[in-house]
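Incident log, support desk, overnight shift.

02:14 A customer reports that sequence design results differ from what the structure should imply. Their input is reproduced verbatim below. On-call engineer (initials T.W.) acknowledged and began investigating.
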């Protein structure tokens, strides 16, 4: 009896693997939908369209970008969770939906670990610490000294409560022992405009894309880069860690996921195609021009990265007591 059960189990496993492989051979045979949790024009949307266009050209099947903004990414995420796990629904997510939301919301309608299967990391965008040219500090060391000398008087801008920029500011406070005031704005545009004015806030944590033109034009002063490594677009700008803030490493990143239980063979085929596209020089150059750096990965590498990022932001949110109204 035990032998019969064993043979039956092995047979079922072989059939499952065979059907998965056969399915992947015919994949894709219809349009693929890429869910983007933001409106057209942002970094997530730009990545999805750059990759989707070339996937479509290579596979001969349409890759349709479906923008579903709102709800801090929850709207798009729920659509992906409810989709059939067949490789025809791809979630192009950012730091917020995958690494921040699990700790920011008391009740989340999805589980990153249980409902999504990682495919590949796409791009990473460092965060710039910038100030109006009239702001006295020229380095992070000088900023820390001023903040300690005048607690609760310096304010920093971010693109909103719970954003990677806001949490970068909270991490800065934690690691430097400073007491600075957070001023959230509704997006990168308003935050950048406030910094250009130099009156409402003294400095800010902003994305590379919106800030770089003003930095290069001398209208904003860059104090540091948030990532552990220097940015390709501003190689002369020291990192926070290089300026004494040990352990500081934050960014905005974008990655590809599919619904859980999607066949591994399909995930492997999707991964190979996405990585191929991201390594194309024309794609790399184009995306770099928008302020992001191409960083393709294996599914396993993305899984490990997401877990480490989620743990990092969970700690920041807990220590800072960040809550959404």
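02:41 Re-run completed on a clean worker. Output:
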């Amino acid at each position: 009896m035990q032998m019969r059960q064993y043979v039956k189990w092995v047979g079922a496993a072989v059939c499952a693997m065979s059907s998965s492989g056969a399915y992947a051979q015919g994949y894709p045979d219809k349009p693929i939908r890429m869910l983007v949790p933001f409106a057209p024009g942002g970094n997530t949307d730009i990545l999805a369209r750059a990759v989707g266009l070339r996937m479509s050209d290579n596979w001969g099947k349409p890759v349709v970008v479906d923008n579903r903004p709102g709800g801090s990414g929850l709207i798009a995420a729920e659509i992906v969770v409810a989709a059939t796990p067949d490789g025809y629904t791809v979630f192009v997510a950012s730091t917020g939906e995958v690494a921040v939301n699990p700790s920011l919301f008391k009740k989340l309608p999805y589980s990153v670990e249980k409902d999504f299967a990682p495919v590949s990391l796409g791009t990473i965008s460092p965060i710039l610490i910038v100030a109006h040219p009239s702001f006295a500090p020229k380095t992070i060391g000088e900023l820390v000294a001023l903040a300690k000398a005048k607690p609760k008087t310096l304010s920093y801008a971010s693109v909103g409560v719970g954003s990677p920029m806001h949490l970068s500011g909270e991490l800065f406070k934690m690691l430097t022992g400073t007491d600075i005031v957070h001023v959230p704005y509704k997006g990168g545009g308003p935050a950048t405009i406030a910094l250009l004015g130099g009156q409402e806030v003294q400095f800010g944590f902003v994305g590379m894309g919106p800030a770089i033109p003003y930095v290069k034009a001398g209208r904003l002063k860059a104090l540091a880069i948030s990532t552990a490594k220097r940015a390709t677009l501003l190689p002369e700008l020291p990192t926070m860690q290089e300026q004494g803030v040990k352990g500081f490493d934050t960014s905005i990143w974008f990655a590809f996921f599919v619904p859980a239980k999607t066949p591994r063979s399909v995930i492997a085929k999707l991964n190979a195609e996405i990585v191929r596209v991201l390594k194309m020089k024309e794609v790399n150059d184009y995306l770099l021009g928008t302020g992001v750096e191409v960083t393709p990965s294996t599914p396993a590498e993305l899984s490990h990265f997401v877990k480490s990022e989620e743990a990092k932001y969970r700690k920041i949110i807990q220590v800072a007591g960040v809550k959404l109204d």
